[in-house]
Amino acid sequence: MDRDTELSLIDELLSLKARDSAFLDASTARNPVQNYTSADRFRAEQDKVLRRQLVSAAHSSELQGSGAFLQRHINGLPVLITRDDGGHVHAYLNVCRHRGMRLVAEQTGCRHRFTCPYHAWSYANTGELIAAPQFEAGFPAQSKAELGLRRLHCEERFGFIWLTTAEHNGAQVSTYGDDLDAELEALDMQNMVIAVEHTDVRKVNWKTLLEGGLEAYHFKVAHKNTIGPYFENNLSTYQTFGPHIRSVLARSNFGALDTGSRDSWRLREHANLLYTLFPTTQLLVQQDHVIWIRLEPISVGETHVRVVTLAPRELSANQSHWQRNHGITAATLNEDFAIGEAIQAGALSGANDTFLFGRFEGALAKFNATIQQALD
Ligand code: FES
Ligand SMILES: [Fe+2]
Questions:
Q1: Nearest-angstrom CA–CA distance, 365 and 355
Q2: H or E element that contains 274
Q3: Which residues have any ligand 1 atom within 6 Å of their CB?
Q4: What spacing in Å lies between the alpha carbon of 152 and ligand 2's midpoint?
Q5: Candidates 94, 119, 149: which one to mutate for ligand 1, based on the most atoms within 8 Å of Cβ?
Q6: How far is the CA of 174 from the CAs of 66, 127, 158, 219, 323, in angstroms?
Q7: Contacts of residue 269, Cβ cutoff 8 Å, sequence gap at least 6
């Protein structure tokens, strides 16, 4: 983030704090509850949004060295990710082109070719079909060149491997826009490693989980026993970058900035930044590390969640520190996830036809409008 942006965000939050006001959008908004409960709606989101946008499938440190591979289940599809001898990453559907057997069973490993366990068709880690027993006799007039693995759009940037699982709509991390690109680059996540992580499956629509990070209205209430005391009351602001959102959430030491000289102001020492990279990646930026939250929608009412503490490589050895830190993050997110499940359980009750977004919950309205645009 450039220094002018950093200072203007601090100025904005200090002035809101002085007026004892939250950042306010022009109006309230409503979102149909059905968007969180309808299986048809979920299928439409999967086809037209989730599978066409970029997913942060892995951190680069999970795919180290030539021949490294890993598999993932993304947007309902089996995916194989590889790194070739030149260091380039590739992604394919993890499905043999002969009769559709799963090609690779291991979650991760190192291999330059993959042999199908059914009839031994072999593929290079760059996707080509390189050998198949008795191919000429059994498959006359078939061309091996046309039987390579089904390739998915894949990029490596900002320390992550990004991919799309179906028709590519042109979205690229390199088109996130200059400002957002520079901010993500400056986080130096390519020099971080996974210090601690956990996964969970929650009975809640994916959008509810994501929305939980987009407002600070609930902090002092829902998180009163965890992080609530460490934040200002509902003091936050946000900015959109196309479909993406950067939220700034002021910590309880924010007022101390008022007294220090402007030269000494450092936003990350007094606020958390949360980047919501449309549609299923959130990066919570803390003072010296980043929490990567990856949502994997399974069905309309079920979501797989992966929460990862990314620590700078040189600080990562202090395991007890990161375990403790991750424990606080996990306890806080578990409060959010439990609330999400309770919302999902009541969503079909008919109590609400719509959910109401207040003027300080404008980021939720923007996020849902982006999905609606993609569906239309
Ligand atoms: S299904 Fe893979 S070789 Fe036959
Ligand atoms: Fe929360």
A1: 10
A2: strand 271-277
A3: 96, 98-101, 116, 118-119, 121
A4: 34
A5: 119
A6: 24, 24, 10, 34, 33
A7: 253, 287
- pLDDT tens for 85-143 read 999 999 999 999 999 999 999 999 999 999 999 999 999 999 999 999 999 999 999 99
Q: Distance between CA 310 and CA 15 in Å, rounded?
A: 32
- Structural domains in the chain, sorted by start: 3-53+180-375 (3.90.380.10), 62-152 (2.102.10.10)
Q: Cis omega (within 30 of 0) on the bond before 279?
A: yes
Q: pLDDT for 198-249, tens place per residue?
A: 999 999 999 999 999 999 999 999 999 999 999 999 999 999 999 999 999 9
Encode pLDDT of 157-209 as tens digits. Answer: 999 999 999 877 777 776 777 789 999 999 999 999 999 999 999 999 999 99
Q: CB neighbours (10 Å) of residue 323? A: 12
| CA atoms of 216 and 236, how far apart (whole Å) | 6
Which parts of 156-236 fold into alpha helices (H)?
Answer: 178-186, 206-211, 219-222
Q: What is the spatial distance between Cα 239 and Cα 214, in angstroms, rounded to a whole number?
A: 11
The sign of the CA dihedral 6, 7, 8, 12 is positive
Q: Which pLDDT band holds residue 22 (cuts at 50, 70, 90)?
A: confident
Relative to the CA of 120, which ligand 1 atom is closest? 3
Instruction: Kindly report the pTM of this predicted structure.
Output: 0.96
Q: Are 291 and 284 in contact (CB under 8 A)?
A: yes
Six-digit token string for 151:
């390739």
- Residue 213 and residue 299 in contact, taking contact as beta carbons nearer than 8 Å: no
